[in-house]
Design brief:
Number of helices of chain B: 11
CATH architecture of chain B: Orthogonal Bundle
Shape of chain B: globular
Strand content of chain B: under 5%
Helix content of chain A: over 70%
Largest sheet of chain B: none
CATH architecture of chain A: Orthogonal Bundle
CATH class of chain A: Mainly Alpha
CATH superfamily of chain A: ABC transporter involved in vitamin B12 uptake, BtuC
Helix content of chain B: over 70%
Number of strands of chain B: 0
CATH topology of chain A: ABC transporter involved in vitamin B12 uptake, BtuC
Radius of gyration of chain B: 19 Å
Number of domains of chain A: 1
Order of helices and strands of chain A: HHHHHHHHHHHHHH
Shape of chain A: globular
Order of helices and strands of chain B: HHHHHHHHHHH
Structural class of chain B: mainly alpha
Radius of gyration of chain A: 20 Å
CATH superfamily of chain B: ABC transporter involved in vitamin B12 uptake, BtuC
Oligomer: heterodimer
Strand content of chain A: under 5%
Distance between the termini of chain B: 45 Å
Largest sheet of chain A: none
Largest interface: A-B, 56 and 61 residues
CATH class of chain B: Mainly Alpha
């Protein structure tokens, strides 16, 4: 229905006219709204995640989103429920098990590998049990911006605002607990509680990102903007703001590109974000090669959290 | 059941047995060498490789094996400088998967007669869809992997358990590492045909993890890992044949996960890696 219209329009390069044309469709307006909310929330949460070296937890949570969404489709309930339910539940499980990074022993990594594969297999089972109108798991895995309803946007906005509010409250102690957990614990900061709360926030943010980029490409909105920003500046406030800006920019650019081209949204968002990441790396390498290294000294912000 | 006499099931059983054997053997060393993450990386690359080949009009398996073996060797080359950090790896693989989705769309939109399910079958496997020639090739490759691995098993084990002493004794540790990663790449390509690129990690990790929990002796564990993998493959295929609603890759993964979970009930967990026999 809409797809026939959306694949045909050409860019006139008159940005105002282009936006007017795009926003004539209610579903595009919804997609842009959802993209804006999700990219801001994810960049903020992702910034802390990169700083805390918990990308592996983010990866596991995004895998959990797939069976969640497909079970919701199978049972006929809203997919948002599946995304949020499974991601937050998985976050609580990870918090209960304690942090196990990729560098954990051989056995732990075998366990995580098996659990991830099993979760994906369950998602596939639910998809294949569902005999309705669904062309396969690719939309869930690689993202789609079609058919985002106003109700979903409202839900995304509410959850996003909640996540940002909690993050604003715990942001300062969380940063302290991340950069130096022992001193923070000594000063009476509830490090463990903060870690659990943060994982729940991470689950909620992953669930939001999954609905835009698909569960496999969550990193595009969670990790890459934060990693790029932390390459460009070492000051916490500035790099957090930059991460939000980069996430927002790559999401909207991706949406515009996906409107004019028939390729999946997840591809555009990852490509744009990844190009920025590579450029930031190149820029920094060039900077250092030319000997402009700042005499102030770049304090490496990325310090591992609790071991 | 007459399903068992159908050619598609016999093909699946034959190819599945060979693939599971190779995956069990390779997976044991993968877990022992703490290189499970390589399997994760390969699972992303396998999808993009296969999709790129389809979009370019080549045989899917060409892209699959070229991508997995190439990246396996590439990771081997990077490996000596230590693991690059999670963030860089995560970003690169997210992009590679995005690229895979891009090729998938090119393939499904530009080629007439393209099967819409191609992406799904690469991601989640299509073991019941193998033809006779595909089965033969899969069995041959899997057999070759198993034989090469068994030939290098002893020095590889030595190099894995005590790298420094092995180097001093004149074992070509680096070459073995490279050769092993090429084998892992080939196995990943094979496993993709059976359970799909997203689930191959489970096929590599679950039997090996279970075997390592059950016995301390390396060669027993190696044999057990291969045996478990084959048994899990058989029961998964049978389960899927009995209950057609269950996709075979789910049934295989479910049995493998269940067996692995059961080993946690049988034995209390240990912290140390198995000592050398």
């Amino acid at each position: 229905m809409f797809l026939a219209d959306t694949s045909s329009p050409a860019v006139s390069w008159n940005l105002l006219a282009d936006f007017q044309q795009m926003w004539a469709y209610p579903f595009m307006v919804n997609a842009f709204r959802a993209g804006a909310i999700v990219s801001v929330v994810c960049a903020a949460v992702g910034w802390f995640m990169v700083l805390r070296r918990q990308t592996f937890a983010g990866h596991t949570l995004s895998v959990a989103a797939f069976p969640g969404a497909s079970l919701a489709i199978l049972l006929g309930v809203s997919t948002s429920l599946g995304y949020f339910g499974f991601c937050v539940a998985a976050a609580l499980v990870i918090a209960a098990l304690g942090r196990k990074g990729r560098d954990a022993g051989a056995e732990e990594s075998a366990v995580t590998g098996t659990v991830q594969a099993f979760a994906l297999a369950c998602g596939y089972l639910f998809i294949s049990l569902y005999k309705g109108l669904l062309e396969g798991p690719t939309a869930l895995l690689f993202g789609s911006f079609l058919g985002i309803t106003t109700g979903q946007v409202t839900l995304l906005a509410i959850v996003g605002a909640l996540v940002l509010a909690v993050l604003a409250v715990i942001g300062r102690p969380l940063l302290f607990a991340t950069v130096d957990p022992e001193v923070a614990a000594g000063r009476g900061v509830p490090v463990r509680l903060l870690s659990t709360v943060f994982l729940v926030l991470l689950g909620a943010a992953t669930a939001e990102a999954s609905q835009i980029t698909g569960t496999l490409l969550v990193f595009a909105l969670m990790v890459i903007p934060a990693a790029t920003a932390q390459q460009l500046t070492s000051r916490p406030g500035r790099s957090l703001a930059l991460a939000v800006l980069i996430g927002f920019g790559s999401c909207w650019l991706g949406l515009i590109a996906a409107y004019y081209q028939p390729y999946p949204l997840g591809f555009f968002v990852t490509t744009i974000a990844f190009t920025g990441y590579v450029l930031a790396h190149l820029g920094r390498a060039l900077h250092e090669a030319l000997g402009w290294s700042r005499s102030r000294g770049r304090t490496p912000l990325s310090i591992g959290g609790t071991a | 059941m007459n399903v068992l006499t159908q050619p598609f099931f016999q093909h699946a059983l034959l190819a599945g047995t060979a693939i599971a054997l190779a995956a069990g053997l390779v997976g044991y060393f993968l877990v022992l060498r703490a290189q499970i993450f390589t399997g994760d990386a390969l699972s992303h690359v396998a999808f993009t490789g296969a999709m790129a080949a389809l979009a370019g009009g080549y045989d899917l398996r060409l892209g699959l094996f070229a991508a997995t073996i190439g990246v396996g060797l590439l990771l081997g080359g990077l490996g000596s400088r230590g693991r690059p950090d999670d963030v860089a790896i995560g970003s690169v693989f997210a992009w590679i998967l995005g690229l895979g989705a891009f090729f998938l769309t090119i393939y499904t939109t530009s080629r007439s007669g393209a099967q819409g399910g191609a992406g799904t079958s690469v991601l989640f496997g299509s073991i019941f869809g193998l033809s006779t020639s595909q089965t033969q090739l899969a069995v041959l490759i899997a057999a070759a992997i198993s034989i090469v691995l068994l030939l290098i098993a002893r020095p590889l084990l030595f190099a894995t358990l005590d790298e420094a002493v092995a180097t001093a004794r004149g074992v070509p540790v680096r070459l073995l590492g490279f050769g092993f990663l090429a084998l892992v790449g080939a196995t990943a390509g094979e496993a993709t045909q059976a359970v799909g690129s997203l689930l191959l990690l489970g096929l590599l990790a679950a039997p090996a993890g279970a075997a390592i929990r059950l016995t301390d002796r390396p060669f027993h564990a190696l044999a057990l890992s291969a045996g478990l993998a084959v048994a899990e493959m058989w029961s998964g295929l049978l389960l899927s044949a009995e209950a057609p609603k269950l996709p075979p890759s789910f049934a295989i993964m479910a049995t493998a996960s269940a067996v692995y979970a059961a080993t946690f009930l049988i034995r209390p967990r240990r912290t140390a890696l198995p000592a050398a026999a």
